[in-house]
Amino acid sequence: MILVTQWTVLLLLLSPALGMVEEERLALREKARAMFHHSYDNYMEHAFPHDELRPVSETYTDSLMELGNLNLEHLSPSYNGTALTLVESLSTLAVLGNTSEFEKGVSWLSENLSFDIDVRVNVFECTIRHLGGLLSAHMLASDPDTRLMPGGYSGRLLALAQDLGERLLRAFTSPTGIPYAWVNLRHGVRKGETPETSTAGCGSLILEMGTLSRLTGRHQYEDAALWALRKLWAMRSPADLMGTTLNVETGQWIEFSGGIGAGVDSFYEYLLKAYILFDEPAYWASFHKAYLAAQRFLRTGNWYQDADLRTGRPTHRQFGALQAFWPGLQVLAGDVEEARRTHRQFFAVWETFGVFPERYYYDGQAVHHSENYYPLRPELAESTYLLYQATRDPLYLKVGKTILTNLNRFTKVPGGYTSLRSAVTKEKEDHQHSYFLSETCKYLYLLFDPHPPPFLRNKQFVFTTEGHILPLGFSRVPLRAPLTAVVKPPCDTCQTINLDEHKISYMSLRVCPNWAIDSRTFKSLGGVESICHIPDGSPDHRCKNHLQCGVDAASCRHRTCSPAGFCN
Protein backbone atom coordinates (compact mmCIF):
# COMPACT_ATOMS: atom_id res chain seq x y z
CA MET A 1 0.00 0.00 0.00
CA ILE A 2 1.42 3.38 -0.97
CA LEU A 3 1.28 6.03 1.72
CA VAL A 4 1.09 9.62 0.55
CA THR A 5 1.99 12.26 3.09
CA GLN A 6 2.26 15.99 2.74
CA TRP A 7 5.95 16.01 3.46
CA THR A 8 6.84 13.31 0.97
CA VAL A 9 4.64 14.83 -1.73
CA LEU A 10 5.71 18.43 -1.40
CA LEU A 11 9.32 17.87 -0.34
CA LEU A 12 9.72 21.21 1.31
CA LEU A 13 11.36 20.23 4.61
CA LEU A 14 14.70 21.98 4.43
CA SER A 15 17.32 21.39 7.10
CA PRO A 16 21.12 21.23 7.36
CA ALA A 17 22.74 18.06 6.09
CA LEU A 18 24.75 15.61 8.13
CA GLY A 19 27.87 13.97 6.81
CA MET A 20 29.02 16.86 4.61
CA VAL A 21 30.32 20.07 6.09
CA GLU A 22 28.42 23.15 5.02
CA GLU A 23 31.50 24.70 3.40
CA GLU A 24 31.83 21.78 1.00
CA ARG A 25 28.14 21.81 0.26
CA LEU A 26 28.16 25.52 -0.48
CA ALA A 27 31.19 25.06 -2.71
CA LEU A 28 29.30 22.40 -4.68
CA ARG A 29 26.30 24.72 -4.94
CA GLU A 30 28.52 27.37 -6.48
CA LYS A 31 29.93 24.82 -8.91
CA ALA A 32 26.36 24.03 -9.97
CA ARG A 33 25.71 27.76 -10.37
CA ALA A 34 28.88 28.08 -12.47
CA MET A 35 27.74 25.12 -14.59
CA PHE A 36 24.49 26.86 -15.38
CA HIS A 37 26.10 30.18 -16.21
CA HIS A 38 28.74 28.55 -18.40
CA SER A 39 25.90 26.93 -20.36
CA TYR A 40 23.67 30.00 -20.37
CA ASP A 41 26.31 32.61 -21.15
CA ASN A 42 27.62 30.61 -24.10
CA TYR A 43 24.08 30.15 -25.39
CA MET A 44 23.41 33.88 -25.17
CA GLU A 45 26.71 34.70 -26.87
CA HIS A 46 26.74 32.10 -29.65
CA ALA A 47 23.15 30.91 -30.21
CA PHE A 48 20.49 33.35 -28.95
CA PRO A 49 17.77 33.89 -30.18
CA HIS A 50 17.96 30.51 -31.89
CA ASP A 51 16.79 27.42 -30.07
CA GLU A 52 19.82 25.59 -28.74
CA LEU A 53 23.59 25.85 -28.59
CA ARG A 54 26.19 23.77 -30.39
CA PRO A 55 28.92 24.14 -27.78
CA VAL A 56 31.81 22.46 -29.59
CA SER A 57 31.53 24.55 -32.76
CA GLU A 58 30.08 27.51 -30.81
CA THR A 59 27.17 27.91 -33.19
CA TYR A 60 23.44 27.23 -32.93
CA THR A 61 20.67 24.89 -33.98
CA ASP A 62 17.00 25.72 -34.54
CA SER A 63 16.04 22.43 -33.00
CA LEU A 64 12.38 22.99 -32.05
CA MET A 65 11.31 21.64 -35.43
CA GLU A 66 13.63 18.65 -35.03
CA LEU A 67 12.76 17.54 -31.48
CA GLY A 68 11.39 14.02 -31.82
CA ASN A 69 11.69 14.16 -35.61
CA LEU A 70 14.20 11.39 -36.14
CA ASN A 71 13.86 11.47 -39.95
CA LEU A 72 14.01 15.28 -40.11
CA GLU A 73 10.86 15.47 -42.23
CA HIS A 74 9.01 18.61 -43.32
CA LEU A 75 11.60 21.06 -42.01
CA SER A 76 10.87 24.73 -42.59
CA PRO A 77 13.67 26.64 -44.37
CA SER A 78 12.26 29.93 -43.02
CA TYR A 79 12.30 28.99 -39.33
CA ASN A 80 14.90 30.95 -37.35
CA GLY A 81 14.25 29.83 -33.80
CA THR A 82 12.10 30.89 -30.88
CA ALA A 83 14.69 31.44 -28.13
CA LEU A 84 13.90 27.99 -26.72
CA THR A 85 16.85 27.83 -24.34
CA LEU A 86 16.08 31.28 -22.95
CA VAL A 87 12.48 30.24 -22.23
CA GLU A 88 13.72 27.06 -20.56
CA SER A 89 16.27 28.98 -18.49
CA LEU A 90 13.93 31.47 -16.83
CA SER A 91 12.79 29.30 -13.93
CA THR A 92 16.41 28.32 -13.19
CA LEU A 93 17.45 31.97 -13.25
CA ALA A 94 14.74 32.56 -10.65
CA VAL A 95 16.02 29.72 -8.46
CA LEU A 96 19.58 31.07 -8.69
CA GLY A 97 18.36 34.54 -7.74
CA ASN A 98 19.64 36.16 -10.93
CA THR A 99 17.00 38.89 -10.96
CA SER A 100 18.61 41.07 -13.60
CA GLU A 101 18.93 38.29 -16.18
CA PHE A 102 15.43 37.00 -15.42
CA GLU A 103 13.96 40.46 -15.93
CA LYS A 104 15.97 40.98 -19.09
CA GLY A 105 14.80 37.63 -20.51
CA VAL A 106 11.13 38.28 -19.69
CA SER A 107 11.33 41.73 -21.30
CA TRP A 108 12.92 40.40 -24.49
CA LEU A 109 10.39 37.59 -24.86
CA SER A 110 7.50 39.95 -24.16
CA GLU A 111 8.58 42.25 -26.96
CA ASN A 112 9.96 39.83 -29.54
CA LEU A 113 8.61 36.28 -29.24
CA SER A 114 5.86 35.23 -31.67
CA PHE A 115 4.40 31.83 -32.48
CA ASP A 116 2.81 32.93 -35.74
CA ILE A 117 5.42 30.95 -37.64
CA ASP A 118 5.37 28.34 -40.36
CA VAL A 119 7.02 25.49 -38.47
CA ARG A 120 5.98 21.90 -37.73
CA VAL A 121 6.64 21.05 -34.09
CA ASN A 122 6.24 18.08 -31.82
CA VAL A 123 3.19 18.79 -29.65
CA PHE A 124 4.63 17.16 -26.54
CA GLU A 125 8.03 18.82 -26.76
CA CYS A 126 6.58 22.23 -27.54
CA THR A 127 4.12 21.89 -24.65
CA ILE A 128 6.57 20.87 -21.96
CA ARG A 129 9.33 23.22 -23.09
CA HIS A 130 7.78 26.39 -24.47
CA LEU A 131 4.32 26.35 -22.91
CA GLY A 132 5.55 25.07 -19.55
CA GLY A 133 8.47 27.50 -19.50
CA LEU A 134 6.26 30.50 -20.28
CA LEU A 135 3.61 29.55 -17.71
CA SER A 136 6.16 28.96 -14.98
CA ALA A 137 7.98 32.22 -15.71
CA HIS A 138 4.68 34.10 -15.77
CA MET A 139 3.69 32.78 -12.37
CA LEU A 140 7.11 33.53 -10.91
CA ALA A 141 7.15 37.02 -12.41
CA SER A 142 3.62 37.71 -11.11
CA ASP A 143 4.43 36.63 -7.55
CA PRO A 144 5.49 39.67 -5.48
CA ASP A 145 7.31 37.40 -3.05
CA THR A 146 9.88 36.47 -5.71
CA ARG A 147 10.88 40.11 -6.34
CA LEU A 148 12.05 39.08 -9.79
CA MET A 149 10.56 41.99 -11.71
CA PRO A 150 11.44 45.22 -9.86
CA GLY A 151 10.60 47.20 -12.98
CA GLY A 152 7.09 45.74 -13.19
CA TYR A 153 5.56 42.96 -15.26
CA SER A 154 2.91 43.33 -17.96
CA GLY A 155 1.65 39.71 -17.98
CA ARG A 156 2.74 39.34 -21.59
CA LEU A 157 4.12 35.81 -21.06
CA LEU A 158 0.65 34.53 -20.26
CA ALA A 159 -0.68 36.09 -23.48
CA LEU A 160 2.11 34.32 -25.39
CA ALA A 161 1.29 31.05 -23.64
CA GLN A 162 -2.39 31.40 -24.53
CA ASP A 163 -1.56 32.09 -28.17
CA LEU A 164 0.63 29.00 -28.23
CA GLY A 165 -2.08 26.97 -26.50
CA GLU A 166 -4.59 27.92 -29.21
CA ARG A 167 -2.17 26.76 -31.89
CA LEU A 168 -1.47 23.48 -30.11
CA LEU A 169 -5.21 22.82 -29.78
CA ARG A 170 -5.31 22.24 -33.53
CA ALA A 171 -3.50 18.96 -32.92
CA PHE A 172 -6.52 17.61 -31.03
CA THR A 173 -8.55 17.09 -34.20
CA SER A 174 -8.14 13.35 -34.69
CA PRO A 175 -11.26 11.13 -34.73
CA THR A 176 -10.45 9.95 -31.19
CA GLY A 177 -9.60 13.35 -29.75
CA ILE A 178 -6.08 12.13 -28.97
CA PRO A 179 -3.71 14.75 -30.40
CA TYR A 180 -1.53 14.20 -33.41
CA ALA A 181 2.13 14.18 -32.47
CA TRP A 182 2.90 16.99 -34.92
CA VAL A 183 1.27 20.31 -35.71
CA ASN A 184 2.24 23.36 -37.75
CA LEU A 185 1.98 26.41 -35.53
CA ARG A 186 0.54 28.51 -38.36
CA HIS A 187 -1.42 26.03 -40.47
CA GLY A 188 -2.44 23.26 -38.06
CA VAL A 189 -2.16 19.53 -38.80
CA ARG A 190 -0.87 18.95 -42.31
CA LYS A 191 -2.76 16.67 -44.68
CA GLY A 192 -1.42 13.14 -44.48
CA GLU A 193 0.21 13.72 -41.09
CA THR A 194 1.38 10.55 -39.36
CA PRO A 195 -1.24 9.20 -36.93
CA GLU A 196 1.44 7.57 -34.78
CA THR A 197 2.18 8.98 -31.34
CA SER A 198 3.61 7.80 -28.04
CA THR A 199 1.84 7.21 -24.76
CA ALA A 200 3.97 9.85 -23.08
CA GLY A 201 3.52 12.26 -25.97
CA CYS A 202 -0.28 12.35 -25.83
CA GLY A 203 -0.75 11.53 -22.14
CA SER A 204 1.58 14.12 -20.61
CA LEU A 205 -0.06 17.43 -21.48
CA ILE A 206 -2.43 17.93 -18.57
CA LEU A 207 -0.17 19.97 -16.25
CA GLU A 208 0.60 22.67 -18.79
CA MET A 209 -2.81 22.70 -20.48
CA GLY A 210 -4.62 22.56 -17.15
CA THR A 211 -2.54 25.40 -15.75
CA LEU A 212 -3.22 27.49 -18.85
CA SER A 213 -6.97 26.96 -18.43
CA ARG A 214 -6.93 27.89 -14.78
CA LEU A 215 -4.86 31.02 -15.35
CA THR A 216 -6.98 32.24 -18.26
CA GLY A 217 -10.40 30.95 -17.22
CA ARG A 218 -10.75 29.24 -20.62
CA HIS A 219 -11.51 25.53 -20.21
CA GLN A 220 -10.78 24.32 -23.72
CA TYR A 221 -7.09 23.61 -23.08
CA GLU A 222 -7.68 21.47 -20.02
CA ASP A 223 -10.73 19.81 -21.59
CA ALA A 224 -8.71 18.76 -24.65
CA ALA A 225 -5.79 17.37 -22.64
CA LEU A 226 -8.10 15.63 -20.20
CA TRP A 227 -10.17 14.06 -22.98
CA ALA A 228 -6.99 12.67 -24.55
CA LEU A 229 -5.78 11.38 -21.20
CA ARG A 230 -9.10 9.64 -20.53
CA LYS A 231 -9.11 8.08 -23.98
CA LEU A 232 -5.57 6.85 -23.44
CA TRP A 233 -6.33 5.47 -19.97
CA ALA A 234 -9.33 3.63 -21.41
CA MET A 235 -6.94 1.83 -23.78
CA ARG A 236 -5.07 0.15 -20.93
CA SER A 237 -5.19 -3.62 -20.71
CA PRO A 238 -7.16 -5.49 -18.03
CA ALA A 239 -3.83 -5.69 -16.19
CA ASP A 240 -3.64 -1.84 -16.20
CA LEU A 241 -0.61 -1.89 -18.51
CA MET A 242 0.04 0.54 -21.35
CA GLY A 243 1.75 0.14 -24.71
CA THR A 244 4.32 2.53 -26.11
CA THR A 245 2.88 3.81 -29.40
CA LEU A 246 -0.65 4.12 -30.76
CA ASN A 247 -2.66 5.35 -33.74
CA VAL A 248 -4.58 8.52 -32.88
CA GLU A 249 -7.06 8.01 -35.70
CA THR A 250 -8.13 4.46 -34.81
CA GLY A 251 -7.38 4.44 -31.09
CA GLN A 252 -5.47 1.17 -31.50
CA TRP A 253 -2.08 0.18 -30.13
CA ILE A 254 0.82 -0.04 -32.57
CA GLU A 255 3.44 -1.16 -30.07
CA PHE A 256 2.00 -3.46 -27.41
CA SER A 257 5.18 -3.53 -25.36
CA GLY A 258 5.63 -0.86 -22.72
CA GLY A 259 7.59 -0.06 -19.59
CA ILE A 260 8.47 2.93 -17.41
CA GLY A 261 11.02 4.40 -19.79
CA ALA A 262 11.09 6.02 -23.22
CA GLY A 263 7.68 6.51 -24.78
CA VAL A 264 5.72 6.01 -21.54
CA ASP A 265 7.67 7.64 -18.70
CA SER A 266 5.93 11.00 -18.19
CA PHE A 267 2.48 9.41 -18.52
CA TYR A 268 2.99 7.94 -15.05
CA GLU A 269 4.59 11.16 -13.84
CA TYR A 270 1.71 13.40 -14.91
CA LEU A 271 -1.00 11.19 -13.41
CA LEU A 272 0.55 11.70 -9.98
CA LYS A 273 1.57 15.32 -10.41
CA ALA A 274 -1.87 16.26 -11.74
CA TYR A 275 -3.31 14.84 -8.53
CA ILE A 276 -0.91 16.97 -6.50
CA LEU A 277 -1.37 20.16 -8.52
CA PHE A 278 -5.12 20.06 -9.15
CA ASP A 279 -6.21 18.15 -6.03
CA GLU A 280 -8.42 15.81 -8.07
CA PRO A 281 -8.59 12.31 -6.44
CA ALA A 282 -9.41 10.58 -9.75
CA TYR A 283 -5.83 11.17 -10.88
CA TRP A 284 -4.54 9.42 -7.79
CA ALA A 285 -6.90 6.49 -8.34
CA SER A 286 -5.58 6.02 -11.87
CA PHE A 287 -1.95 6.49 -10.87
CA HIS A 288 -2.34 3.99 -8.05
CA LYS A 289 -3.62 1.33 -10.44
CA ALA A 290 -0.89 2.08 -12.98
CA TYR A 291 1.83 2.05 -10.31
CA LEU A 292 0.73 -1.26 -8.80
CA ALA A 293 0.65 -2.78 -12.29
CA ALA A 294 4.18 -1.53 -12.95
CA GLN A 295 5.40 -3.01 -9.68
CA ARG A 296 3.71 -6.30 -10.44
CA PHE A 297 4.57 -6.80 -14.10
CA LEU A 298 7.54 -4.54 -14.86
CA ARG A 299 9.68 -4.72 -11.75
CA THR A 300 12.25 -7.49 -11.69
CA GLY A 301 14.49 -7.27 -8.66
CA ASN A 302 15.55 -3.62 -8.55
CA TRP A 303 15.38 -3.31 -12.35
CA TYR A 304 12.39 -2.63 -14.57
CA GLN A 305 11.65 -4.52 -17.78
CA ASP A 306 9.23 -3.89 -20.63
CA ALA A 307 6.21 -6.17 -20.89
CA ASP A 308 3.42 -7.00 -23.32
CA LEU A 309 0.30 -5.22 -22.11
CA ARG A 310 -1.90 -8.13 -23.21
CA THR A 311 -0.09 -10.87 -21.29
CA GLY A 312 2.20 -9.13 -18.82
CA ARG A 313 5.08 -11.21 -20.13
CA PRO A 314 8.55 -9.59 -20.45
CA THR A 315 9.56 -8.28 -23.85
CA HIS A 316 12.80 -6.37 -23.17
CA ARG A 317 15.04 -6.68 -20.14
CA GLN A 318 16.93 -3.43 -20.32
CA PHE A 319 17.66 -0.20 -18.50
CA GLY A 320 16.93 3.02 -20.37
CA ALA A 321 18.33 6.34 -19.19
CA LEU A 322 14.84 7.86 -19.00
CA GLN A 323 13.90 5.27 -16.37
CA ALA A 324 16.02 7.22 -13.88
CA PHE A 325 13.05 9.50 -13.17
CA TRP A 326 11.25 6.58 -11.49
CA PRO A 327 12.88 6.79 -8.02
CA GLY A 328 11.87 10.44 -7.84
CA LEU A 329 8.30 9.52 -8.74
CA GLN A 330 8.33 6.82 -6.08
CA VAL A 331 9.38 9.44 -3.54
CA LEU A 332 6.47 11.66 -4.53
CA ALA A 333 4.15 8.68 -4.10
CA GLY A 334 5.53 8.00 -0.64
CA ASP A 335 7.19 4.71 -1.60
CA VAL A 336 10.57 5.91 -0.36
CA GLU A 337 12.24 2.60 0.46
CA GLU A 338 11.49 1.28 -3.02
CA ALA A 339 12.88 4.53 -4.40
CA ARG A 340 16.13 4.03 -2.52
CA ARG A 341 16.58 0.53 -3.90
CA THR A 342 15.75 1.56 -7.46
CA HIS A 343 18.04 4.59 -7.31
CA ARG A 344 20.91 2.50 -5.95
CA GLN A 345 20.61 0.08 -8.86
CA PHE A 346 20.44 2.86 -11.45
CA PHE A 347 23.33 4.80 -9.96
CA ALA A 348 25.51 1.70 -10.27
CA VAL A 349 25.21 2.08 -14.06
CA TRP A 350 26.32 5.73 -13.80
CA GLU A 351 29.33 4.72 -11.71
CA THR A 352 30.26 2.04 -14.22
CA PHE A 353 30.35 4.37 -17.23
CA GLY A 354 30.72 7.81 -15.64
CA VAL A 355 27.48 8.86 -17.37
CA PHE A 356 24.38 7.01 -18.54
CA PRO A 357 24.31 5.11 -21.84
CA GLU A 358 20.88 5.55 -23.39
CA ARG A 359 20.20 1.81 -23.25
CA TYR A 360 21.88 -0.90 -21.17
CA TYR A 361 21.06 -4.61 -21.15
CA TYR A 362 21.33 -5.50 -17.47
CA ASP A 363 21.06 -9.25 -18.03
CA GLY A 364 24.05 -9.35 -20.35
CA GLN A 365 25.72 -6.28 -18.79
CA ALA A 366 26.17 -4.77 -22.23
CA VAL A 367 25.54 -1.35 -23.76
CA HIS A 368 23.27 -1.20 -26.79
CA HIS A 369 25.39 -1.11 -29.95
CA SER A 370 23.83 2.08 -31.33
CA GLU A 371 21.88 3.65 -28.46
CA ASN A 372 24.99 4.22 -26.38
CA TYR A 373 24.92 8.03 -26.39
CA TYR A 374 24.42 10.41 -23.45
CA PRO A 375 22.37 13.54 -24.27
CA LEU A 376 22.89 15.30 -20.90
CA ARG A 377 19.78 13.69 -19.45
CA PRO A 378 18.69 15.12 -16.06
CA GLU A 379 16.63 12.29 -14.57
CA LEU A 380 19.26 10.92 -12.19
CA ALA A 381 19.94 14.38 -10.78
CA GLU A 382 16.19 14.88 -10.31
CA SER A 383 15.69 11.61 -8.43
CA THR A 384 18.78 12.27 -6.31
CA TYR A 385 17.46 15.68 -5.29
CA LEU A 386 14.00 14.31 -4.41
CA LEU A 387 15.44 11.43 -2.43
CA TYR A 388 17.64 13.78 -0.44
CA GLN A 389 14.69 16.05 0.33
CA ALA A 390 12.68 13.06 1.59
CA THR A 391 15.41 11.30 3.58
CA ARG A 392 18.15 13.83 4.44
CA ASP A 393 20.56 10.98 3.82
CA PRO A 394 24.01 12.53 3.08
CA LEU A 395 24.59 9.67 0.65
CA TYR A 396 22.59 11.62 -1.93
CA LEU A 397 24.79 14.67 -1.56
CA LYS A 398 27.73 12.42 -2.41
CA VAL A 399 25.83 11.01 -5.39
CA GLY A 400 25.13 14.57 -6.54
CA LYS A 401 28.80 15.40 -6.19
CA THR A 402 29.67 12.45 -8.43
CA ILE A 403 27.14 13.55 -11.04
CA LEU A 404 28.42 17.13 -11.04
CA THR A 405 32.06 16.04 -11.16
CA ASN A 406 31.49 13.68 -14.09
CA LEU A 407 29.53 16.28 -16.06
CA ASN A 408 32.41 18.70 -15.72
CA ARG A 409 34.94 16.01 -16.53
CA PHE A 410 33.30 14.48 -19.59
CA THR A 411 30.87 17.01 -21.08
CA LYS A 412 32.26 20.48 -20.39
CA VAL A 413 33.89 22.29 -23.32
CA PRO A 414 34.91 25.94 -23.68
CA GLY A 415 31.62 26.69 -25.45
CA GLY A 416 29.25 25.07 -22.91
CA TYR A 417 28.27 21.49 -22.08
CA THR A 418 27.87 18.94 -24.83
CA SER A 419 26.07 15.67 -25.34
CA LEU A 420 28.23 12.60 -25.82
CA ARG A 421 28.04 10.45 -28.90
CA SER A 422 29.15 7.48 -26.81
CA ALA A 423 28.95 6.95 -23.07
CA VAL A 424 31.78 4.44 -23.44
CA THR A 425 34.34 6.42 -25.44
CA LYS A 426 33.08 9.86 -24.30
CA GLU A 427 33.19 11.12 -27.90
CA LYS A 428 31.50 14.53 -28.05
CA GLU A 429 28.47 15.29 -30.17
CA ASP A 430 28.10 19.12 -30.25
CA HIS A 431 24.62 19.68 -28.81
CA GLN A 432 23.58 21.37 -25.55
CA HIS A 433 19.93 20.51 -24.91
CA SER A 434 17.75 23.18 -23.35
CA TYR A 435 16.66 20.80 -20.59
CA PHE A 436 20.24 20.80 -19.29
CA LEU A 437 19.57 24.33 -18.07
CA SER A 438 15.95 23.84 -16.99
CA GLU A 439 16.53 20.55 -15.17
CA THR A 440 20.06 19.23 -14.64
CA CYS A 441 21.58 22.49 -13.42
CA LYS A 442 18.50 23.39 -11.36
CA TYR A 443 18.26 20.06 -9.53
CA LEU A 444 21.97 19.97 -8.73
CA TYR A 445 21.88 23.55 -7.47
CA LEU A 446 18.86 22.86 -5.24
CA LEU A 447 20.41 19.64 -3.97
CA PHE A 448 23.41 21.54 -2.60
CA ASP A 449 21.60 24.72 -1.55
CA PRO A 450 20.85 24.63 2.21
CA HIS A 451 18.90 27.89 2.00
CA PRO A 452 16.63 27.92 -1.08
CA PRO A 453 14.93 31.17 -2.08
CA PRO A 454 11.87 32.09 0.03
CA PHE A 455 9.39 31.49 -2.80
CA LEU A 456 10.45 27.82 -2.78
CA ARG A 457 10.89 27.57 0.97
CA ASN A 458 7.52 29.08 1.88
CA LYS A 459 5.29 27.72 -0.88
CA GLN A 460 4.21 24.35 -2.19
CA PHE A 461 4.91 23.45 -5.79
CA VAL A 462 5.56 20.71 -8.30
CA PHE A 463 8.12 20.47 -11.07
CA THR A 464 6.88 19.65 -14.55
CA THR A 465 8.62 16.92 -16.50
CA GLU A 466 10.85 19.68 -17.91
CA GLY A 467 11.72 21.00 -14.44
CA HIS A 468 9.50 24.09 -14.58
CA ILE A 469 8.00 25.28 -11.30
CA LEU A 470 4.21 25.32 -10.89
CA PRO A 471 3.02 26.59 -7.48
CA LEU A 472 0.11 24.82 -5.83
CA GLY A 473 -3.03 26.66 -4.92
CA PHE A 474 -3.00 29.18 -7.77
CA SER A 475 -6.43 27.90 -8.73
CA ARG A 476 -8.78 25.44 -7.14
CA VAL A 477 -11.44 25.70 -9.83
CA PRO A 478 -12.97 22.20 -10.01
CA LEU A 479 -12.23 20.15 -13.09
CA ARG A 480 -15.11 20.14 -15.54
CA ALA A 481 -14.52 16.47 -16.24
CA PRO A 482 -12.61 14.21 -13.81
CA LEU A 483 -10.42 11.50 -15.25
CA THR A 484 -12.98 8.83 -14.43
CA ALA A 485 -15.91 10.76 -15.94
CA VAL A 486 -16.59 12.40 -19.27
CA VAL A 487 -17.43 15.85 -20.52
CA LYS A 488 -21.19 16.20 -20.23
CA PRO A 489 -23.07 17.52 -23.26
CA PRO A 490 -24.21 21.11 -22.69
CA CYS A 491 -27.70 21.75 -21.36
CA ASP A 492 -29.61 25.00 -21.22
CA THR A 493 -30.16 24.56 -17.48
CA CYS A 494 -29.52 21.87 -14.92
CA GLN A 495 -32.23 22.10 -12.30
CA THR A 496 -34.01 19.63 -10.07
CA ILE A 497 -37.12 18.14 -11.66
CA ASN A 498 -39.73 15.99 -9.90
CA LEU A 499 -40.55 13.33 -12.45
CA ASP A 500 -43.69 12.11 -10.70
CA GLU A 501 -45.11 15.63 -10.76
CA HIS A 502 -44.24 16.62 -14.29
CA LYS A 503 -44.51 13.32 -16.18
CA ILE A 504 -42.76 14.92 -19.12
CA SER A 505 -39.47 14.28 -20.82
CA TYR A 506 -36.23 15.98 -20.07
CA MET A 507 -35.86 16.58 -23.79
CA SER A 508 -38.96 18.79 -23.88
CA LEU A 509 -37.83 20.60 -20.74
CA ARG A 510 -34.34 21.13 -22.17
CA VAL A 511 -32.74 20.20 -18.87
CA CYS A 512 -30.30 17.57 -17.69
CA PRO A 513 -31.64 14.65 -15.63
CA ASN A 514 -31.71 15.17 -11.88
CA TRP A 515 -28.64 13.33 -10.58
CA ALA A 516 -30.46 12.63 -7.29
CA ILE A 517 -33.35 10.82 -8.99
CA ASP A 518 -33.59 7.16 -8.11
CA SER A 519 -32.85 5.05 -11.19
CA ARG A 520 -35.94 2.87 -10.57
CA THR A 521 -38.15 5.96 -10.73
CA PHE A 522 -36.58 6.86 -14.05
CA LYS A 523 -37.14 3.40 -15.49
CA SER A 524 -40.75 3.34 -14.34
CA LEU A 525 -41.46 6.25 -16.66
CA GLY A 526 -40.53 4.16 -19.63
CA GLY A 527 -37.02 5.45 -20.26
CA VAL A 528 -37.68 9.15 -20.49
CA GLU A 529 -35.43 10.74 -23.09
CA SER A 530 -33.10 13.52 -21.97
CA ILE A 531 -31.25 16.34 -23.64
CA CYS A 532 -28.06 14.49 -22.82
CA HIS A 533 -29.07 11.32 -24.65
CA ILE A 534 -26.95 10.35 -27.66
CA PRO A 535 -27.69 6.91 -29.17
CA ASP A 536 -24.90 4.48 -29.96
CA GLY A 537 -23.63 4.74 -33.50
CA SER A 538 -24.73 1.22 -34.40
CA PRO A 539 -28.18 -0.30 -33.63
CA ASP A 540 -26.51 -3.51 -32.43
CA HIS A 541 -24.24 -1.46 -30.12
CA ARG A 542 -21.07 -2.72 -31.80
CA CYS A 543 -18.07 -0.39 -31.69
CA LYS A 544 -14.40 -0.05 -32.55
CA ASN A 545 -13.63 2.96 -30.35
CA HIS A 546 -15.32 5.02 -27.66
CA LEU A 547 -16.43 7.73 -30.04
CA GLN A 548 -18.86 5.27 -31.64
CA CYS A 549 -20.71 4.98 -28.32
CA GLY A 550 -23.36 7.41 -27.16
CA VAL A 551 -24.39 9.08 -23.91
CA ASP A 552 -26.70 7.41 -21.41
CA ALA A 553 -30.04 9.19 -21.08
CA ALA A 554 -30.40 8.67 -17.34
CA SER A 555 -26.95 9.60 -16.09
CA CYS A 556 -25.37 11.63 -18.89
CA ARG A 557 -22.51 9.13 -18.69
CA HIS A 558 -20.61 8.56 -21.92
CA ARG A 559 -20.77 4.88 -22.78
CA THR A 560 -17.45 3.20 -23.50
CA CYS A 561 -16.37 0.57 -26.00
CA SER A 562 -15.50 -2.64 -24.19
CA PRO A 563 -12.59 -4.88 -25.18
CA ALA A 564 -15.19 -7.21 -26.72
CA GLY A 565 -16.34 -4.43 -29.03
CA PHE A 566 -19.68 -3.46 -27.48
CA CYS A 567 -20.83 -0.14 -26.02
CA ASN A 568 -21.49 -0.43 -22.29
From TrEMBL:
Q: Which SUPFAM superfamilies match?
A: Seven-hairpin glycosidases
Output the GO biological process annotations, alphabetical, semicolon-separated.
Answer: carbohydrate metabolic process; endoplasmic reticulum mannose trimming
Question: What is a single molecular function from GO for this protein?
Answer: mannosyl-oligosaccharide 1,2-alpha-mannosidase activity
- Look up keyword Cell division and say if it applies: no
Principal EC category:
hydrolase
- The active site consists of E125 (proton donor), D265, E358 (proton donor), E379
Taken from the UniProt entry, a GO cellular component term is: membrane
Keywords for this protein: Calcium, Endoplasmic reticulum, Glycoprotein, Glycosidase, Hydrolase, Metal-binding, Signal
* Pfam families membership: Glyco_hydro_47
The catalytic activity of this protein is classed by the Enzyme Commission as 3.2.1.-
From the record, give the transmembrane residue ranges: none
Signal peptide as annotated in the record:
1-19
InterPro entries xrefs: 6hp_glycosidase-like_sf, EDEM1/2/3, Glyco_hydro_47, Seven-hairpin_glycosidases
Cofactor(s) needed? Ca(2+)
As for subcellular location, the record says: Endoplasmic reticulum
Residues noted as binding Ca(2+) in the record, renumbered to the chain: T465
User: Is the keyword Ribosomal protein assigned to this protein?
Assistant: no
Homology family: Belongs to the glycosyl hydrolase 47 family.
Protein name per Swiss-Prot or TrEMBL: alpha-1,2-Mannosidase
List the taxonomic lineage.
Answer: Eukaryota, Viridiplantae, Streptophyta, Klebsormidiophyceae, Klebsormidiales
